[in-house]
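Entry 12.
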Amino acid sequence: MFEPEYPIRTPRLLLRPFTPADLDALYDFHRLPEVSRYLETEPRSREQVRSLLAGKIFARVLTTEGQRLCLAADLAGTRELVGDCTLFWRSREHRRGEIGYIFHPACHGRGLATEAAAAMLRLGFEGLGLHRIVARCDARNVASARVMERIGMRREAHLVQSEFLKGEWTDELIYAMLRTEWQARQPPG
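Predicted 3D structure (C-alpha cells):
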C-alpha cells in the first residue's frame, strides 16, 4: 500500500487529497470550455463534477495496480484550489505509471503545473517505486507538452490522427521518463 504523507509541498503548492468542500472550486474550472478543449470530455455540469469529485475523494491511497491517486493542488499562500493532479498505477509487474494534470486557466503560464507534475513524478518514482512514467496530451496542447519537457520527460511518440475527438481526428503526443533519468536529474545529497 502507498499513501503519501499529506500535504505534499512544492515551492508554491500544497498537494492533498480531495474533500467534499472542493466542489465549488473544482467546478469553477472543469466547467470551462478552454479546460476541456483537448480532453475527451465536454465542459462538465455541476452534477458531473460532483460525481467526479466523489471518485477523487477516495483516490488518496494506492493498494493495487489499476488505481489512481487524485490530488488537489492548492496555492500554498491562500489554500485556493487551482489544480487537479493524478498519478495512475498502470502495472505492478512492469512498474509503470502515468501522470496527468488540469489547472485553472487563471493560473496558466506561472509554472504551477510544472511544479505539480514534477511532484507527481517524485511520488511515482520515489514513493511507489515505479520504473517508467508516461504522460500524454493532444498535440495541439503546446502548453501541456512544454510542462512535460520542463520536468525532463522525453517525447517518445507523435501518433498522427490517432483519436477521433469532438468531431475531428487529432494527434497525440506521448512523453516518458525512466527512474534512472529521474535520479540523474536530482541534486546530489
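Annotation: The CA atoms of residues 114 and 177 lie 15 Å apart. The longest strand covers residues 154-165.
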